[in-house]
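TICKET: design request
STATUS: open
ATTACHED STRUCTURE:
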């Protein structure tokens, strides 16, 4: 199975600590770590530890609502941990091919630490 069909991704290895990542927050439901290819001084990824059907946001179901809320709440929490609550920051979810998603395990990008521009490309 390819990742986009729900097979394992590199993030499973990060969750299992099989490959290193700089983890900045973790609880029973989710994990936040630094993106390996940061697009800004702070670039974190917030992911559910159990992907389930959440390979991408467009696969979300009714029973994913509490996890989605938890991930968004956690995005702000880790942003504040980085001091970004004082300056502003951006949360992004890339979905599917046209959204430029490359890892099919739902993740929220938390990006900040410099003046960002809008709209994205
Ligand atoms: P996407 O393009 O799917 O929205 O974002 C995937 C993100 O995962 C990219 O920003 C990419 O740099 C990051 N990424 C991919 N592989 C790894 C990895 O092994 N470790 C970490 N920390 N980030 C990764």
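STATUS: resolved
RESOLUTION: sequence designed for all positions
ATTACHED SEQUENCE:
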């Amino acid at each position: 199975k390819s990742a986009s069909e729900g097979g394992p991704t590199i993030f499973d290895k990060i969750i299992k600590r099989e490959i290193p990542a700089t983890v900045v927050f973790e609880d029973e439901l989710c994990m936040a770590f630094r993106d390996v290819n940061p697009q800004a001084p702070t670039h974190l990824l917030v992911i559910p530890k159990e992907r389930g059907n959440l390979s991408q946001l467009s696969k979300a179901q009714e029973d994913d609502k509490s996890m989605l809320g938890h991930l968004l709440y956690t995005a702000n929490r880790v942003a504040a941990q980085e001091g970004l609550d004082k300056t502003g920051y951006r949360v992004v979810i890339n979905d599917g091919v046209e959204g430029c998603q490359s890892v099919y395990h739902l993740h929220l990008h938390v990006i900040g630490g410099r003046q960002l521009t809008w709209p994205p490309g």
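CLOSING REMARK: The CA atoms of residues 37 and 43 lie 8 Å apart. Residues 10, 21, 33-37, 45, 94, 100-103 surround guanosine-5'-monophosphate (CB under 6 Å).
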